[in-house]
């Protein structure tokens, strides 16, 4: 088999995994989900799902990657063979590849909107605009297939370019520049929003728990979000884990990923809500929070358009570092399995996903109302996002937990995790019983909702 690729530095896996984890899920989705599901109540359920499901499955996924040292599909084939279990486990890899392909398609379309707003902010064309102007600007963007296609194409091409350069020259080098820059931008946003927004109201909103706000939908949303935000159940983490040097600590790294990802979501949430409350706007705007409410807040504040540009550049950078982690597992598979060169493999994945993205683009305009095609698929980025986060990613995660919990031997797990017996038993208990039960519960609840 292939000579295995390994990251150049011990810390690169953490860098890459954080790059994958931190993205639209933190900056766009977490704040609007919290806004829609009662702030503090959402946070509480989210914390529970993170620790009962997120951390254990994250560890399981890294473990499968590192012990197989192959791309997810080939890795699961290898592991099921060496463990004398059914080749059906290979479906973890296939399911992941399918999810990656779908996620990338709409992720790129939405990240493309951030490109549009970066541009609008830089040119100052939104300065002083009122609510109606900004809302109709967003509608006009969605109504334009040409603009959406342009941004979508630029975004996917940039992501593909980085992956095409290889895991060292492209991904590692790219992230080493990008990630610290993103941290700096995030702090600029936080400082600006602390000075110009209403941090008190934001803190109150995010951290005050009203038990009446706890709901089953909130629980469903929180579970889906913990998969989405940690990039779980679709092979991104497995693929990156395959390049992780053996001596780096797996459980400590996993914990660091979760802490950093959550911190970014909280900081973004605080900054966004402080601006939204400061401008007297509605926090429960849903997906439009970032693209309508926030631009309006920036439009009304001193120096807002400039800081708004910084914010949308942050969104773009975080999205690119996530998008490359969707391309990598599939590209690595194509290279391993069909002996394609990297450029060909990346191009195949990116072009296929780009084409699916076009359907999403059209679902916002040409097919928005009455095309039979739209009726048939009910296609739109948000619907696909739901299908993915509430069904495909949890299903992938469930299988990963079961395989890692039941098929791997104690000795193997010990060799990779090298932690205390106590922690190891806790982890095993979680992946064997708790995570699967929690996922299965939410999953069964979700299916009628996605269909309905
Ligand atoms: N975790 C990313 C985010 O929060 C999304 C993602 C999902 C990235 C799946 C890779 C794989 O935006
Ligand atoms: Na995330």
Automatic annotation (TrEMBL):
GO terms for cellular component: membrane. InterPro entries: Na/ntran_symport, SNS_sf, YocR/YhdH-like. It is a multi-pass membrane protein. It is found in: Membrane. Its main location: membrane. GO terms for molecular function: symporter activity. It holds the Pfam family SNF. Signal peptide: none annotated. The chain crosses the membrane at residues 12-30, 42-64, 92-115, 146-165, 177-195, 219-243, 255-281, 306-334, 346-367, 387-408, 429-447. Keywords: Membrane, Symport, Transmembrane, Transmembrane helix, Transport. CDD domains: SLC6sbd_Tyt1-Like. Belongs to the sodium:neurotransmitter symporter (SNF) (TC 2.A.22) family. This is Transporter. It comes from Halomonas caseinilytica.
